[in-house]
Amino acid sequence: MRNESDKTQSIKTRGDIYRISKKQEAINDLNKSIDIEPNNVYALWVRGGIYTRQEKYDEALKDLNKALEIDPNNSYALGVRGEVSLKKGEFDDALEYIDKALKIDPDNLYAFEVRGEVYFKRGNLNDAFEDLNKVLEIGVDSNSFDTLGFRGGIYRVRGDNEKALKDFTKSIEIEPNNTFVLSRLGDILQRQGYDKEALANFTKSLEIEPNDVFTLRCRAQLYNKLRENDKALKDLDKALQINPNHKFSLETRSEIYREIREYEKSLKDYNKLIEISPSPNYLGKRGTVYRLMGRYEKAFKDLNQALEQEPNNSYVLTMRGRLHGVLDRYEDALNDINHALEEDPDEAWALMYRGDIYRRQGRLEEAIIDLKKALSIEPTNSFALRIIGMTYYGLKKHKEAILNLDKSLKVEQDYEFKMKMLKMYHQMGLFV
Questions:
Q1: Which of 27, 104, 127, 252 has most Cβ atoms within 10 angstroms of its Cβ?
Q2: Ramachandran class of 313: left when φ > 0, alpha when ψ lies in -120 to 50, beta otherwise
Q3: How far apart are CA 253 and CA 287, in angstroms?
Q4: pLDDT value at 429 more than 90
Q5: 258: CB partners within 8 A, 6+ apart
C-alpha cells in the first residue's frame, strides 16, 4: 500500500512537466544536465514530457525511448511515452505503456490522467470517469484543467449539465484557452439558450484552433438557430473540407439546405450520408427531401426501406404519414402517425401533421389540441403556427388566426415562401 508521501510526490512530479513546459530557462537547464550526464533518466523523461506538451513528438520519443532503455520500469517515463502514443492517436500502444506504468506505481497520477483521456477518446466513458475521479479526489490544482475538462465532457454526454458546467468553469479558470472545454461549454450554453455566451466560446475556441471540426459544426448550428445561414454554411463547408465524411456536419448542412429549400444540395448531402452510414433516419430524411421535391415514388421507396429496417422508428413513421397526407390518403396517414405517437407521444412533427390532417378533415377542435401540444414543444415552428392559424380561421376565430399567422411569418426563413403566404392571407381577408 502506498503512503500519503508517495501521493504527494506523485502530485509534485506531475506538476514538474506542466509548470516548466513553457519556460525556456528550464529547458536550457535540462539540456545542460543531459550534456553533462547523458544517461540521467529523470532529465530525459522530463524533457520528453516537455517536448510532448510542445507537440514535438519525434524529439519526445528520442528522449523517452532512451530513458526506458536505461530504466525500463520507470513509471513516469512509461506514462509520458503513453501520452505520446495518445497524442498520435495510437490508443492501443498508449494503454500498453500506461497499464505497465500503473502496475509499477499505482499512485502515478500522470498515468491515470493519460489513461482517462485515452478511455474518453475511445468512448469508454465509465472507465475514463473512474480514472479521472482518482486524480481529482487527490485535489484540484493548477494542473487539473485537462482532467476537469474531460470529466466535464463525460458529464455532458451523460446529460448532467450542472456538473459539466461546474467542471468546465473550474477548468477555464485555470486555463482560459482550453479549446476542448471552450467548445463543449459553448455547446451546453447553446442548448440552455445562452446564445451570445455560446457564440463567444465557439469563436474564441476557433481563434485558437481554427480547424476544429466539432466546434465549426456547433457554431454552424447556432448560426442556423440565429437565422444566419450564410455564416452557418460557411462553417460547415470548412468543416467538410477538413473532413469530407464528418457525418454530423453533413447532416447539419443537409438540414439547412432543406430548410432554405435548396433541395438538390440537400439531396446530395443525404446521398453522401447514406453511402457512409445507410441508417433508417438518413433514409427517412432523404425520403422527406424527395417528398418536398414532388418525387413521391422515390420518397416512398426510402421511407419503406427505412421502416423495413426499423418498423417502430417514430420519425420515419411520421414522414411516411406526412407523405400519405400530401396525397390525401388520410387513413394511411393517420395509421402511420398514430403509430409514431404511440412510440413517442412528444414527437412534435407527428402532432403537427396529425393536426393538419384533422384540419383538412374538418375535425378542427381535435386539430387545435394537437397543434397546441406541438407548439408547447417547438414554440417557434413556422409550420405549426401557420396550420393552427388556418385552423382558427376555419373556426371563425379571426383574432387567434391573425396572431398565429403573424408569428409564423416572423419566424419563416424563406422570403419567397413568406411573400406567397402573405399574399394568400390577404386574399382570405386576414391582414397580418
A1: 252
A2: beta
A3: 16
A4: no
A5: 266, 285, 288, 289, 292
For residue 287, how many other CB atoms are within 10 A of its CB? Answer: 28
Distances, alpha carbon 94 to alpha carbons 16, 73, 118, 307, 319, in Å: 21, 16, 8, 42, 46
Residue 217 φ/ψ, nearest 5 degrees: -65, -40
Cβ proximity of 390 and 358 under 8 Å: no
Candidates 72, 85, 79; CA nearest to 46 is: 79
The pLDDT, as a whole number, for residue 22 is: 53
Say how far residue 48 (Cα) sits from the centre of its chain: 33
Q: What is the pTM of this model?
A: 0.78
For the record, the C-alpha cell of 70 comes out as: 536505461
Residue 18 has a pLDDT of 52
Kindly tell me if the per-residue pLDDT of 8 is higher than 50.
no
Nearest Cα neighbor of 27 from 11, 51, 10 is 51
DSSP secondary structure string for all residues of 95-109: HHHHHHHHHH-TT-H
- Domain residue spans of the chain: 1-143, 346-432
CATH architecture of 1-143: Alpha Horseshoe (1.25)
346-432 folds as: 1.25.40
Letter for the amino acid at 366? E
pLDDT digits (tens, 9 = 90+) for 187-225: 999 999 999 999 999 999 999 999 999 999 999 999 999
Q: What is the DSSP string of 128-177?
A: HHHHHHHHHHH---TT-HHHHHHHHHHHHHHT-HHHHHHHHHHHHHH-TT
Q: Return the C-alpha cell found at 111.
A: 498515468
| Residue 231: exposure state from Cβ atoms within 10 A (0-12, 13-18, ≥19) | middle
Q: Which residues contact 263 (CB under 8 A, 6 or more apart)?
A: 257, 289, 292, 293
With beta carbons less than 8 A apart as the criterion, state whether 350 and 337 touch: yes
The answer to whether 199 and 222 have CB atoms below 8 angstroms apart is: yes
**Torsion 302-306-312-318 (CA) sign:** negative
